[in-house]
Write a structure and sequence with these properties.
The chain is an all-alpha fold. The chain has 4 helices and no strands. Helix 1 (5-29) packs antiparallel against helix 4 and helix 2 (37-58) packs antiparallel against helix 3 (62-84).
Length: 126
């Protein structure tokens, strides 16, 4: 059953916001002092994955969106943990944007019924 236009538009808007947050974080990591290579790589993967999620949504591939969002959530958690291991500019500049993106990803996963809390392990809610 096709998604109502308003819901489709809202999900697209939220995916675009997440993508923008992650692209900005990846760009900032190139100029901020003290960003470890593993964090830079994680941010690049987040940026690419967010683009894939939005593209899958545009093609109305719900399973692709679900898969991309689960991967995004995992990568966002990893990026937040990596940013916490650094002092100074990397933590101060990158962490707030990463935390906002992570929360936006979690909220969208919850809205779409994608849970990683052990009671459905990423499967859509019934």
């Amino acid at each position: 059953m096709p998604m109502p236009t308003d819901a489709h538009t809202e999900i697209y808007r939220r995916l675009s916001k997440i993508e923008n947050e992650l692209v900005q974080a990846a760009q900032a990591s190139a100029v901020v002092r003290g960003v470890a290579p593993d964090l830079r790589q994680c941010l690049q993967q987040l940026s690419e994955q967010s683009q894939q999620a939005r593209a899958a949504h545009l093609r109305s591939r719900d399973e692709g969106v679900a898969s991309a969002l689960r991967e995004l959530e995992m990568l966002a958690e990893q990026a937040c943990e990596l940013s916490d291991t650094r002092d100074g500019d990397a933590r101060r500049v990158l962490r707030p944007g990463l935390e906002e993106a992570r929360q936006d990803i979690r909220d969208l996963c919850h809205q779409l019924g994608l849970h990683r809390d052990g009671d459905g392990a990423g499967r859509p809610a019934a």
